[in-house]
Design a protein that fits this description.
The protein is of the alpha+beta class. The protein has helices at 8-19, 26-33, 42-54, 96-105, 123-134, and strands at residues 59-61, 69-71, 78-82, 88-91, 117-120. A three-stranded mixed sheet has the order 4-3-5, with no helix packed on it. This is Transcriptional repressor.
């Protein structure tokens, strides 16, 4: 890939995602930088997010339901997605290689990486659920 020309908008998008730890959507990023760049388009945000993912500076999380989310943490880690509010939380496992080793036992090829997503109900939603039961 040819050297990229510096872009203040791209840098602002990258910094915004890196400042968020709640895995923002493209719409959230757009709203977050709109004040600094009032003329920026949502398409520009999408294009720059895709480019930053391609460059390995941020990661894209496809949730299956709803819009893709973006993550400043590009190191291998797992995610938890709440089936109620759709928040995404990082999960740090102490032995990420264990899953790869176990999967390799039943696979004829070479596994070089994996992603793991856990689904359930987050602490906040559980609290709301328990509050409703006791009311």
């Amino acid at each position: 890939m040819a050297a990229l020309k510096y872009s203040r908008q791209r840098e602002s998008i990258r910094e915004f995602v890196k400042s968020c730890h709640d895995h923002p959507t493209a719409d959230t990023v757009y709203a977050g930088i709109k004040e600094e760049f009032p003329n920026i388009s949502l398409g520009t945000v999408y294009r720059n997010l895709s480019l930053l993912v391609e460059l390995g500076e941020i990661a894209k999380i496809s949730t299956g339901e709803g819009p893709d989310r973006f993550d400043c943490n590009t190191r291998p880690h797992s995610h938890f997605i709440c089936t109620q509010c759709h928040c995404i939380k990082d999960i740090q496992l102490t032995d990420m290689d264990y899953i790869t080793r176990k999967a390799s036992e039943n696979f004829d090829g070479e596994i070089t990486a994996h992603t793991t997503t856990f689904y359930g109900i987050c602490k906040n939603c559980l609290g709301k659920k328990n509050l409703q039961k006791s009311s």
